[in-house]
Amino acid sequence: MSRNNAGLSRERILIEALHIIAGRGLGGLSMRRLGDALEVEAMAIYHHFPLGKEQLFNSIAAYVASPSPTGAAFHDEVGQDGEEQTEVEEQAVADERPWDQRLTTWAEAYRERLLTYSGALSLLAHRAPRTPNSATTWALMRHAFDEAGLAGEDIERAADALHSYCIGSVVHQVRHSGHDDEDALDAREWAARFRFGLRSLLRGLV
Amino acid sequence: MSRNNAGLSRERILIEALHIIAGRGLGGLSMRRLGDALEVEAMAIYHHFPLGKEQLFNSIAAYVASPSPTGAAFHDEVGQDGEEQTEVEEQAVADERPWDQRLTTWAEAYRERLLTYSGALSLLAHRAPRTPNSATTWALMRHAFDEAGLAGEDIERAADALHSYCIGSVVHQVRHSGHDDEDALDAREWAARFRFGLRSLLRGLV
DNA sequence: ACCTGAACACCGTTCAAGT
DNA sequence: ACCTGAACACCGTTCAAGT
Hints:
Chain A is 59% helix and 0% strand.
């Protein structure tokens, strides 16, 4: 059974890892199981992630936290080329709506993404990916908060607060849902609460 | 070396676990290492945490997220008796300051606690402890937001938003500090940013 | 370059046994 | 009741070997 060139790639590995996490949780992801799912010996993964599981985790975190699925996380973690998300940038610039609507759109997309990969949420607690996308996001924030009348340090602080609120909301939701609770909320109510807090925060920031 | 009755207890195990997490990270906490630190065979821990590591993790999460270190997490995870934190309740009731100052005090204490045990932060992403303290916190929130003029569902939503912001801020800080970054922030600036967002959120909520 | 297979040190947990 | 010690199935990773 000496099958060589199994067609492995960083992208395939990452996708399969997310699949396993979705199905069996983060604790269910082992190199051996990942190898099985890819129909490959576990050790083959180390050729694409030489630093092992830690590097795989970093890539997963980068992929999940990436506000748009451009696939930037598939390549190097420190992406020095910023060509591939020009579409996103143009899209953000072309958006003619008021600043708060632009930020709301961004925040809801970010929340949606975190929620989609909520099984990997705990990976984000200790890993800050430096994806090309984070620069794009920062540009969007600066532009919007500038338009809102903020200046200097306040812009960074407002962007930080918005980020914090988004990730915190998802953590809060994941923490408190799925428990056989007498007062369990459904997805619609969670989304409503998110928007309520988001509106409040944006109103208070300016 | 058949030493029996090593004086093990839930509390001692929990404290030692937090110690290991602080020193070597969450991944460095193994039952065997924990046993070594307690000068006991690893299997002795199972007598106090019959459900194993998962139960230990739940207890750690309950302890860390507990807004006041009353030791409630040492006993059962579903604490049905609420006698031990009457002091906290009385203290909260006796607080005569305006509602926003009371919430600010709570939020900063909560943040401080999460930051102290930041190594266990990722445990909070999937575990919602039902400690006696959470009832106390809820009472404090309801009282404060009621005084602020909120009513009905808005009180729950505001409390959720405040919780989300606090935990999100700590996750955000932990994510982005400790990386040899050109623009690394110090503890004072992180605290300032937290207060900035907190003030904004409270202002926007009412 | 890309993957295999054996090996090593470690892990969580069960279970019978000791006191 | 409280702890030990051996055992089992699993884990991440290294390293020499195959193509």
